[in-house]
Amino acid sequence: MKIEARDLGWRNIVRGVSCEIRPGETFGLIGPNGSGKSTLLKLLAGLMPRAAGEVRLDDVPLGQLTRRQVAQRIAMVEQFADTGEALSVRDAVELGRTPWLSPLSPFGPEDTRIVDEALAAVDMTGMTKRPWSTLSGGERQRIHIARALAQQPRALILDEPTNHLDIHHQLALLGLVAALPVTVVMALHDLNQAMMCDRLGVMSEGRMVACGAPSDVLTPDTLGRIFRVRAMPMTDPEDGSTLFRFLPMEEPR
Amino acid sequence: MTRRAALVALTLPVLPRVGLGAVLLALAVLAGVIVGETALPLRLVGDVLAVKLWGAERALDPIDAGILWSYRLPRTLVAAACGAGLALSGVVLQALVRNALADPYLLGVSAGAGAGAVSVALLGIGGGAIGLSAGAFGGATAAFVLVALLARAAGGGPAQLVLAGIAGSQLFNALTSFLIAKSANAEQARGLMFWLLGNLSGVRWPDVTMALPVVGAGFLVCLAHVRPLDAFSFGSGAAAALGIAVRRVQLVLIAAVTLMTATLVSLVGSIGFVGLVIPHAVRLLVGPRHARLVPASALAGAIFLIAADIASRVLIPGQVVPIGVVTALVGAPGFALILIRNRRRA
Q1: Looking at the 3D structure of chain B, how many domains does it have?
Q2: Which of A60, B134, B157, B186 has the greatest number of CB atoms lying within 10 Å of its CB?
Q3: Which CATH class is domain A3-218?
């Protein structure tokens, strides 16, 4: 699905952001803390009240869709979503079917299959009966992703999905997300992980200051200006890909 | 699937459970009708029902039949409606505000309804049962809005909500006491205080025709919203991301809860702890999903309050203990258990 944002704004947190996210691409959003990444993601999912500007999903203005229709197109995984209910892993993932169910189309065998697939995709098949309260932060994050997958969206919006995950599950998750046949927009903190996105948008003080292929966007100059670090690009001798080593900025003398 | 096939697929698997629930409820009502200061024979129940509902001709003891038909039966039915309504209110409030301690009593809704009903009764605005209910609804709405605003102004956390509820309860209870002290004569004051503690003694058939439709409608509203209620598990933001029209659902459900609470308070006074303890106990039995929690809580609430009413009649021979006292005696330890369990989970 194509997502177009035109002049998106929310208070002073996000200011006049326009961008076009292409069908099927993995779009990374990077930027320092407080640069407006999370708010921009919520704006794209239509979850912020009183937003300025417009979002179009495959050329349909988001404002013309009901909440339910939006949820059939976009799944969102926020940071820090937690519950005090004694839900099981399966209960939590089944919630993802909500936008597709109604009193006259109740949860059926097809929904069970979709939930099973989503659980398998995040490697949680054997833990479906575990109560939520016993899960680690990383396991909870994987369940949130599974819930989003069970929603069968055409676009997946993820706010720092690799937070709380150990390195194995970070790589597994990014591999999974990249292989999904849907559009993905995600905020990322690890700039080396951001290199694997198709395109990147760089947020700074509420504005999108750069947008393009990772190699064009992640230059030592941009990294110095926006992230206030000295970035040394290095080449992996094995496959020739570029990595960054980050050093503190040299103080001006 | 066609609509019809879908309906069949939806209802068929739950029929045995619905049947079991109906049987349990019928047994509880039966117990509520025959147990009391004068125990009535079981046979009388069948006879009275045959006479009243089918116009059969039976020789009846007019006094026993009168007790059964005019006092015990309406009283038991209102107790059932009341228990179901309060338990449903607890389920809905706990899900919407994501707070294990939410219930109409603790959030001040009952106190607001009481204040509203007392002002109508004493100041003579409106009149009759409808006027009382309308006053209670106004008071309950005012209390809910006040508590919600106060909790939000205080930072919106779970502790703030409970504290705001306490403040709201105290305020509206004080208002009630003030009104009673100012406007009621000694006779009225005694009656009102007794009613406020929760009292089913005065219940007659007209009360049944108020309580049953309101609680029945509230139950259907809750049943129609079991998926949205589930979707609130991870907060209102997550519910919106799952396609729930958050504002509309909150408005509809809170209106249903306020209407049920107000109607029940105006009929039988404010009965505490049912909305708090029953949903938690039922969660332990059927789990947190609302498709089961909503009907099971309604049933458990109804049975619990019938039992509490029986206890209130037989606990002290020759005297009726206010039913609110009975529910508090059972509910307060239950409340303590919830607090301890919550602490362990955190």
Answers
A1: 1
A2: B134
A3: alpha beta
What percent of chain B has a predicted confidence (pLDDT) above 70?
Answer: 94
Report domain extents, chain A: 3-218, 229-253
CATH of the domain at B341: 1.10.3470.10
Place of tokens 């204040």: B115
| Contact status of B344 with chain A (Cβ, < 8 Å) | no
pLDDT at residue B8 is higher than 50: yes
**How big is the CA angle at B167 (ends B141 and B95), to the nearest 5 degrees?**
55
Contact A85 B288 (CB under 8 A): yes
Tokens of B14: 């739950």
**B219 close to B18: Cβ distance less than 8 angstroms:** no
Q: Is A63 on the interface with B (CB under 8 A)?
A: no
DSSP assignments along B103-167, one per residue: -TTTTTHHHHHHHHHHHHHHH--S-HHHHHHHHHHHHHHHHHHHHHHHHHHTT--HHHHHHHHHH
Residue B330 belongs to a domain = yes
Flag if A96 and B242 touch (Cβ within 8 Å).
Answer: yes
Q: Do A69 and B243 touch (CB under 8 A)?
A: yes
Would you tell me how many other CB atoms lie within 10 Å of the CB of residue B102?
A: 26
Domain assignment present for residue B48? The answer is no
Least confident among A141-155, B204-218, B309-323 = B309-323
Q: What ipTM did this prediction achieve?
A: 0.88
Which pLDDT does position A117 carry in this prediction? 94
Q: Do B6 and A105 touch (CB under 8 A)?
A: yes
Residue B165 structural domain:
80-345
Task: Identify whether B205 is part of a domain.
Answer: yes
Within the 102-131 window of chain A, which residues sit less than 8 Å (CB to CB) from chain B?
Answer: 103-106, 108
Predicted TM-score (pTM) of the model is 0.89
B71 in any annotated domain: no
**Which among A72, A81, A105 has CB closest to B234?**
A81
pLDDT tens digits for range B208-222: 999 999 999 999 999
